[in-house]
Design a protein that fits this description.
The complex is a heterodimer of chains A (324) and B (175). Chain A has 21 helices and no strands. With 324 residues, chain A is mostly helical. The mean pLDDT of chain A is 81. Chain B is built from nine helices and two strands. Chain B has a two-stranded antiparallel sheet. Chains A and B meet through helix 20 of A and helix 1, strand 2 and helix 8 of B.
Chain lengths: 324, 175
């Protein structure tokens, strides 16, 4: 024959759970303040034990009274006058019941409105007394991470929405680029770069087609560049002898059209003039004197016929331009 | 050029209409050249005929045939020279050249016509040469008839440079 443990009613279990929760919160709040080995701790334990025992006994009595009262009530209701009296009492209690319902609804609404504020304060109070560091130290982060399905977590993250909400400008403003660069080991970074592979992956033709060479040239201040060029230094570095040594003078002379050169430069006339010597000097003197006398006569003729000779042509149209 | 009262020479006069003085001097020189050559030729011919044939042509006897022969010679002289290069020896000396009215080279027909009409200006008491001084294109009567013009044909700028290079440098010039 086994012992049958009666199941406590719902209301009693809720009360006991509330009491246990209150005791747990109180114990956490007073942790360290009342060590069990101390006198205060012993007194607190005694008080707590008596309170719990008192509550148990009170609940037993209440449960017994409710059980007995319920049985008596059910039996009384079988009697006509009693039932009539109960119905009458029930009807008399209807206004009070309606009033109570209204109060309960209003209270519930007020509680829902105020609960977040009180919950926040309660949270702050709890955080003030709870040793967070101790709690965090006790957390096995590795085990916690092992239990997290990172892939599923990332699938649930809307990265685009996060990026849209990020103020990239403000973020960049807060970045100390110089400090980051100072911390970068450029040598090591370059050592890890496969330059040849990068070059192989670059489509140089496509890159060049996208370059507006004209715009680049327009932005170049050629005068400034030339001013910065030390032409004399460049000339000093040129080995003229070596340059001349590379020139095939014979081939160069062969490419010269001597006849055309003579025609364009009137070389024969220059030679004749240069070899004329004293004779050409005398001729020049005669010609210049003659031209001077011509001009003298023409000036006097112009005074006699100013209108006719003012705009007279200087020579035949095929030999002298109109504006000369 | 202040002493001679002449104007400064322009940098280059090639192609400009030539003035009256140079043209007159050139014409005078050419006439002198033709006469001298003619006299030398006639004298040589007279001497050769007298020496080897025994004929005395007596060129100084006032025979108009000699004068006509001189005119023919002068016509040949001018026409040939102008056809050949547009200039006579005297014109070459003074830097002149005969061209067509538009500036192109002279052809044989125009050269002959110009040589043939050259004396007209003198035959009307020199009035045929007035156009050289007062004409807009400085053309004489024979120029108008033959549609020709006389232009300078030398580089005055080069002549000026040659003159400067030959001029001796004196101490006074440096100061």
């Amino acid at each position: 024959m086994s012992d049958v443990v009666p199941t406590p009613p719902e209301w009693r279990r809720q009360v006991e759970q509330g009491t246990a929760l209150a005791i747990g919160v109180g114990a956490a709040a007073t942790a360290g303040a009342f060590p069990s080995e101390s006198s205060a701790g012993a007194v607190a334990d005694v008080v707590l034990g008596l309170a719990v025992e008192g509550q148990r006994r009170a609940l037993d009595a209440a449960e017994t009274a409710l059980s007995v009262g319920g049985a008596v009530a059910r039996a009384g209701l079988r009697i006509g006058p009693v039932r009539a009296l109960a119905d009458r009492a029930s009807r008399s209690a209807l206004p009070a019941r309606a009033h109570g319902r209204a109060v309960r609804e209003i209270s519930g609404r007020v509680t829902r409105d105020a609960l977040p504020r009180y919950a926040s304060k309660a949270t702050e109070a709890v955080l003030d007394v709870v040793p967070v560091d101790t709690v965090v130290a006790g957390v096995d982060v590795g085990a916690l991470l092992d239990r997290i399905d990172i892939t599923a977590l990332l699938d649930r993250i809307d990265v685009g929405r996060i990026v849209e909400r990020v103020d990239v400008g403000a973020l960049v403003d807060r970045v100390d680029v110089a400090r980051i660069i100072d911390r970068v080991d450029v040598g090591a970074l370059l050592a890890r770069v496969d330059v040849q592979e990068i070059i192989d992956r670059v489509d140089v033709e496509a890159l060049l087609t996208r370059i507006d060479v004209g715009a680049i040239v327009d932005r170049v201040d050629v005068a400034t560049i030339i001013d910065r060029v030390d032409v004399q230094a460049i000339i000093d570095r040129v080995d003229i002898d070596a340059v001349v040594g590379k020139v095939d003078v014979e081939a160069l002379v062969d490419r010269v059209d001597v006849d055309a050169l003579v025609e364009r430069t009137d070389l024969g006339r220059i030679v004749a003039q240069s070899t004329g010597g004293v004779a050409s000097g005398a001729v020049d003197l005669v010609r210049r004197q003659g031209v001077g006398l011509d001009s003298f006569v023409a000036r006097w003729a112009g005074r006699l016929r100013p209108r006719a000779l003012a705009d007279a042509p200087k020579g035949p149209p095929l030999l002298v331009a109109e504006d000369s | 050029m202040k002493a001679s009262g002449t104007a400064p020479v322009s940098p280059s006069l090639i192609g400009h209409y030539a003035g009256a003085v140079t043209r007159l001097v050139a014409l005078a020189l050419d006439l002198a050249i033709t006469v001298v050559i003619f006299n030398l030729a006639v004298s040589a011919t007279d001497w050769l005929l007298a020496r080897f044939v025994g004929v005395d042509v007596n060129p100084s006897g006032g025979n108009p045939a000699w004068f006509l022969l001189l005119l023919v010679w002068q016509f040949v002289y001018f026409a040939y020279c102008w056809t050949l290069s547009g200039k006579t020896p005297a014109m070459a000396l003074l830097g002149l050249r005969v061209v067509r009215g538009d500036g192109s080279d002279l052809d044989r027909r125009r050269a002959a016509l110009r040589a043939l009409t050259l004396p007209l200006g003198a035959l009307i008491f020199g009035l045929g040469y007035i156009g050289i001084i007062f004409g807009r294109r400085r053309r004489a009567l024979h120029d108008v008839i033959a549609d020709t013009a006389v232009v300078y044909d030398f580089d005055a700028r080069a002549a000026r440079l040659r003159f400067l290079t030959r001029r001796p440098v004196h101490t006074d010039d440096r100061s």
